[in-house]
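Appendix B. Extra example for self-study. Work through it before the problem class; the solution is given directly after the inputs so you can check yourself.
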Amino acid sequence: MEPIGKVLVINYEKCTGCRLCELVCAVMHDGISNPARSRIKVMKWEAEGLYIPMSCQQCQDAPCMNVCPVKAISRDENLDYVKIDYDICIGCRACVSACPFGAMSFNSTDRKVFKCDLCEGDPQCVRFCEVNAIEYVDADDSSLLKKREAAERISIAGKEAAALAAQV
Amino acid sequence: MPLDRKIAYIDLTTGDIQTKPIPLDIRKKFLGGRGLDAYLLYNHTEKGCDPLSPKNTLMVSGGILTATCASATARTHIMAKSPLTGLLGSANMGGFFAPELAWAGFHHLVIKGKSKHPVYIYIHNGEIEIRDAREVWGKTVTEAQWAIREDLGDQEVKSVVCGPAGENLVRFANVMTGIKNSGGRSGMGCVFGSKNLKAVAARGTMDIKIARPKEALEYNKRFIDQIVSAKVNQTQGALGTPFIWGATNSWGGIRTRNFQYNQCEYADDIEPERIDEICEETMGKYHMTGCFGCQVHCRSQYKIPSGPYAGQYDEGPEYTSQGAFGGETDTPRAVTVLTGNHLVDKFGMDNLETGSLISWAMELYELGIITSKETDGLDLRFGNDEAVLEMIDRICHRKGWLGDALADGGIAASEKIGKNSFDYLIQVKGMSNLHSDERATPGLALNIATGSRGSDHLRSRPAIDLYHLPEEVLRKIYGNPVAYDGPLSSEHTEYIGKPWQVFWQENCYMGVDCLGICKYHTTFLGATLPNFEDWSKVLYYNTGLEMTPEEIWDVAERCNMIERLFNLREGLTRDDLKKGDMLNHRYFDEPCRRGAIDVVGKKIDKKKFIQMIDELYEHKGLDNNGIPKPETLKKLGLKNEPSHLV
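Solution. Structure tokens for the complete assembly:
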């Protein structure tokens, strides 16, 4: 079977904390600047210089989908993401409670829940993130980047160990 | 809509708070941010008022594009009559405060009076509250911000705070937000302190409807691509502003030992690459951070590697801290620069003013104008790292005779010290010069002499003058949006054409300051970056306001003129060494002793310099005394200002 679906991969170490992703997400979806409307949110620990963007993981066994009492949440066949059918949604916010990542939000103006929909396959957060802290890659390759970085660390450690051994 | 953000008038004496919409005709005349602040200051501040009295009016604002889908609209502007200079006080900073203020419903705050006890102002989704800050008073810049979050039970709150220096009424105390963003110059933190105002905090989730979201988004992408494609910004993004230090010092443009030299020797330890190494060692490979919506990410993260503050986290050091605590004081050691940077960040004190005044005191100590009696035994030699760090602490806490004297600013200190100490003070209008040395660059010298808030590199500096751009490129930049066919020179050591460049830059920088955009996103360090023409489009896509590039230029000219009017009302006279458009005599008398061949031996030719000022006045529509001609005020629509003096 053909593998389908690309996924968002977040490398928080690269994030500079500028929150442009929040801005463009809200403007793209609602035409409005307001981080409270963003599907992605950078959580910050300023005192430590730590910034972690949080967004929907598009879980395979999605708690939001499981908990929805009216079956308004399903998996999109084309882009393989967890989507909300607003014609069915009753706005009970059970999904907001169930999501372990806080990735399902509720907008108090529109009185609707909302989450990442991958912008029809062209995620704006990815497009605008110049430091590539968020990337949109084939699901099969989602851990390749991490593998490479980990391998690099091992390689550096190996070289350092060799250099130490040579000194002895 | 961005245009429906309001203005609030807050009286700390009475507790009275009024909110009003900002009329469209005022928007079209002043846009927002610094420009509108200047209009408010001119109208709301009584002539000759004591800057530390309840009568001084304090403005905190965002630009007209703040928090919209234009790039890097992070700037917060703070304005009041300056307790350092007695003239225009104005400071501008990045971070995340101004967007939060806009999402909370406001673009402008006008704060008057003085509270009986320490307070902070909290703005939340259209509501404004004055809250008790007695528990927050005395805290450092970051401690205060975290305490306010605890007090409000909300970790998303963003605050502008004054630190201990502001509470102690150090005349060049700044206001800060986050770890490093500083509204650094002209003592705005001191005004906070004088009003018993510890902070302004904001938190908002109110919609800002973008006029044409699709176009705004696409144009923003184009804007960002243009900005990150500029080599200067790529370098900033990798090394931060310290990158400027490397080239400038090797060329001979760094004031060293106050004003004795123009190059800092044995400075390898504070070269940008060395600073970057420390950042990487202490914070990892990805150690750059930035302000709201900005892709330049020009700030490094670091931990102090050794010494009494080892392990403390901070951001920077920027170019200014390298000069202030490395070059000017001749202490080019990374740990000293990183620690000095950290101390002023904790205390909420302008690094530039602090370093410059310490190096001035060091020169006076060397000359015997002050002795160990005035320094309370501190060996204030150039090159004494401990003495530099000790003086930062003494100034903040007004400790010892000299610490207390310097805390009042250069001119007041020179009057206290007496003798010929003033002759050695490197300042304009009572504000210290950046550590850059302008003796080989008359255009840059003209800029610092005529800046509206005193000596300053962010008011009108034609920095691209150093790039030797071909004349046709200069004509393209400086001939828009208003025509200019006078002389221009690619040669940075020349005097011709520089007044027009300074005039153009003054309007360019006022433009970004009204829009709320960072100067790294316009014609400051990068010649290819956006200005008036792009702003016209960005403004339209985001706010729906239709203004031509020429009209934005007119706004900038108008706002600069209103700053001039304020200064004139407060006593600016052309040649006054303490309050005028004039440089310290050393620029004309002492040639550069080090540096490249186009620098060594250079000093400013006073006759030509005065001609440049005449020419600049002419471009600005001022008479020979620097006072606006009646026709200029008529042209700019300022004939009836102040229009509603209160």
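Self-check: Chain B is about 40% helix and 15% strand. If your reasoning did not lead you there, revisit section 3.
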